[in-house]
Amino acid sequence: MMRSLIPLAILCCSLNVTAAEWLDHSVDSDFDHLTSLYHFLHQHPELAFREKETASRIAQEFQEIGLEVMKGIGKTGVIAFLRNGEGPLMMMRAPIDALPIEEKSGLSFSSSVRGVGYDNATQVWISHACGHDSDATALVGAARQLNAIKDLWRGTVVFVAQPADEIGEGAKAMVNDGLIDRIGHPDYMIGYHNLPQFESGTIAWVPFDKAAIAGINLVDITVYGEPGHSIWPHKAKDPVVLAAQIVINLQALISRETDPMDSAQITVGAINGGATHTSIPAEVQLRLSVRAVESATQERINESIKRLAEHQALAYGMPEDRLPVVTVQPGTMAFKNDEYLSKLAVSGISEMIGESNVERDQPSLAGEEFATYRTDSPESKLFYFWVGSTDPKVLAASEAGEIKAPALHTPVYAPDADVSIKTAVKALVGIALKALEK
User: Fold this and answer.
1) pLDDT digits 0-9 by tens, 258-285
2) Can you give the pLDDT at residue 330?
3) Strands, E assignment, 44-110
4) Choosing a second label site near 330 at 20 to 30 A (CA), which of 36, 117, 298, 365?
5) Distance in angstroms (rounded) separating the CA atoms of residues 292 and 428
6) How far apart are CA 137 and CA 365, in angstroms?
7) Which residues does 23 contact at the CB level (< 8 Å), separation at least 6?
């Protein structure tokens, strides 16, 4: 059961301390509990849509502080309601899934979990190499703190523990499962993620005049040829050569067709074709990701990929019925932080962790599902921020070229958890107190 936290108003008056000082004390005194939760989540990582044990533990945490909990939303998602009278509705969301990566962080509580991979066949190592365990722990920590200081705010906070972030399907699954019908239309939606590019103890955000997160979609290209033997290349049409030309020329769509001030990126992540050393195959598969901070740019690049692939094939001598087939898979949407909510949020965070610890960031080309939640609630105001997760000394040494700081999605990644989780909790509480002020 949750221990009793001293109400903020009482403590501040009796000890003559600021809200930030009270929160420092309260989070510190609660941290043994959060550490236990973090270690559990870290040692029990689960892949997308299989987060049963993770979801069960998070739901239990919310239930123990008296929140109304709904489980199984979008397969394995959890939502919890902290109701506190009439007022705005705020949604706070954290991802909970892990990755098929073997952990080599050296932590005493490292993951040793193996399970079935995304292909439902191969056995893989599983770990929280993206730090979603720390993000989820902070979500629970914020719920515990806000539950203890109901005298300072009014409204409802809905905590959303989202599955399947790593495959870009969890938010969509929760929305399609009626998330907004279940919780109502949030006035405010808050999202965040740990990020090792920033020092632990800091929060970073992108100003509202720029895209906070880029849109990303996946593109598959099937490049056709005419198969043959390598001793008679003139009697065949080699799709490997054609695919190579397409790969090289794709970069011109960024360097020569996109405004240099408009961030965008094309990555060819896979080339598959052929089976032997001496045969010319019939086709080659290319798999791409396209990222852009502006939706119009993303759409233009997708159209240009099709144009480039087809015209490259025509120049190569392929007939019109054998031109490359380009398939664009819908992806995540670019979004900007709301101006009004950003001002409230940054003010609240600054009060809790100090203005000098709040940094302005540039738009990120990372993919993020967060804007998907606004599909059924377009009037909701969004604010997304990064939680610095690298020890300042480690980051300084990395920037000096002395070491290489661990990055997300690598076997050695582990956030500076004690500091970054506490900072995330304080940031979430600061935002809520400012936006839901009594």
Assistant:
1) 999 888 999 999 999 999 999 999 999 9
2) 84
3) 68-73, 77-84, 89-95
4) 117
5) 28
6) 25
7) 8, 145, 352, 426, 429, 430
